[in-house]
Amino acid sequence: MSQENNEVTVGQASQACGPAGEPCAPGQAKACTVREVLDRVGGKWSIGILVAASQGPVRFTELERRVEGISRRMLTLTLRNLERDGLLHRTVHPTVPPRVEYTATPIALELHGALVALTDWAERHRSAIADARATYDRARGAAD
């Protein structure tokens, strides 16, 4: 995709989905650009959350365990953003204490295959990438 294509819109959004995540004033809505959508679904934490939620309802604490390295604050923010974007559905069960579950929406389930393929690729090639980095760093260190 060329630089010029980053302004292509995806559907007719009713709210802004820019980096600040601020809604537009009524009647001033803008459509999400392809880059904004890809930034959200390809974010550091979004992939793991969406893959986990695509397997069925998942609770916050389970996501904390499954998404390695994520803080509670970042998990909360990412869940809110994914829910806002229509990729997750949040269900609060009226129990004491309240039980909250997240499930993938149909559009997230459509994305699931691509995310799994991406994570599988990363797993298969992480050693080769680590070796390439080490080789690059050695060559740069020797040259500098």
UniProtKB/TrEMBL annotation:
<keyword id="KW-0238">DNA-binding</keyword>
<keyword id="KW-0804">Transcription</keyword>
<dbReference type="Pfam" id="PF01638">
    <property type="entry name" value="HxlR"/>
</dbReference>
<feature type="region of interest" description="Disordered">
    <location>
        <begin position="1"/>
        <end position="25"/>
    </location>
</feature>
<dbReference type="InterPro" id="IPR036390">
    <property type="entry name" value="WH_DNA-bd_sf"/>
</dbReference>
<protein>
    <submittedName>
        <fullName>Helix-turn-helix transcriptional regulator</fullName>
    </submittedName>
</protein>
<dbReference type="InterPro" id="IPR002577">
    <property type="entry name" value="HTH_HxlR"/>
</dbReference>
<feature type="domain" description="HTH hxlR-type">
    <location>
        <begin position="32"/>
        <end position="130"/>
    </location>
</feature>
<dbReference type="GO" id="GO:0003677">
    <property type="term" value="F:DNA binding"/>
</dbReference>
<feature type="compositionally biased region" description="Polar residues">
    <location>
        <begin position="1"/>
        <end position="15"/>
    </location>
</feature>
<keyword id="KW-0805">Transcription regulation</keyword>
<dbReference type="InterPro" id="IPR036388">
    <property type="entry name" value="WH-like_DNA-bd_sf"/>
</dbReference>
